[in-house]
Amino acid sequence: MTDELPAGPSGGSPGGLPELRASDADRERVAEVLRDGLAEGRLDMAEFEERLEATYKARTYGELEPITRDLPASGVTAPGPAAAVSMVKRPAGAADTGEWASRIVGGEGTSRWGVAVMSGFERRGHWTVPKRFNCFAFWGGGVVDLREANFADGEVVVNCYAVMGGLNVVVPPGVEVVVRGIGIMGGFDHGQEGVAGAPGAPRVVVTGFAFWGGVGVERKISKAERLRLREERRREKLERRAARRDGLEPGRD
Question: This protein's superkingdom (predicted)?
């Protein structure tokens, strides 16, 4: 191993029950905090892999609790309280609905404009989209990435003007997209329209025009979600390999 995991107090664990057995859902909640730590640059790949391996090997809360002790709670972008991973069981689907509700935060937004004149700009990562965000590209390009963003309202407008340039709006799965822009000797992407939004998810309206340029709209999962899916496939592969070793592979006598 490259580094030692953060040390915790003797016998420390949620509820003071270090020997209580952890479930797969408990291990997955810890793994999610680790993925956020990697995506935000708080862990390097070696530390992430080491801690993830320890997470999937953990059998009790006492073994899980120290793994995320030096990481902030999921989504925190400044120093804050340590990530206390809840071991409370939740109804199926509650996490998805709660995630969207927690991302519609109100307020004015952290950025209102993006401008690229013979240059480029990016708005990505953890930021708050205002009710109306305006962007302009002239002989340049810009990216408005909403995959990890919070939203000032349940409906936000991204107003795009591309003149001999290009703008790209990236939305996460579950968000409803409405495109009202037009292209004049240029293109405005309407490909993501008609996809139903998830319960509680915000609505993103893309407006404006493109003149000798283009405005693209695409739907992509976040880096943290890609890591989660990759590790899920890795875990399934390890479980199948273990089942073969134990003679428990389906279809075997």
Answer: Bacteria
